[in-house]
Design a protein that fits this description.
Oligomer: single chain
Distance between the termini: 56 Å
Radius of gyration: 28 Å
Strand content: under 5%
Number of strands: 0
Number of helices: 3
Helix content: over 70%
Largest sheet: none
């Protein structure tokens, strides 16, 4: 009797394991297709959009310079330094946490 129960439990576990492996295989194939799409469609589009934005900003600066419009002053004093802090606070992190996060050395991947 005990051996029959053990056999049934073993059969159940083997069937569940087979279903789990099939599910993991389907997920891996979906992830692979998403990674391929990201590499072939999304990344080049983002790169092109950034290049277009950079070109548009340069064109706007040249046009403003040609028209004699002075460069605007920085919006925040020491903007290159204060910008990340202001952005972190604006995104909802408390100032103390934002400053602590920015003060920590970055991990290298």
């Amino acid at each position: 009797m005990l051996s029959i129960v053990a056999l049934l439990i073993t059969a159940f576990v083997v069937l569940r394991l087979a279903r789990l492996r099939a599910h993991v295989h389907r997920l891996e194939s979906r992830i692979h297709s998403l990674e391929t799409r990201l590499a072939t469609e999304v990344a080049p589009s983002v790169k092109a959009a950034r290049a277009d934005a950079r070109d548009a900003a340069a064109t706007a600066r040249r046009a403003a310079e040609a028209a004699g419009v002075p460069d605007p002053p920085p919006r925040v004093p020491l903007e290159p330094v204060a910008g990340p802090v202001v952005r972190a606070v604006a995104l909802g992190a408390g100032a103390r946490r934002a400053l602590a996060r920015l003060a920590r050395p970055r991990r290298r991947s």
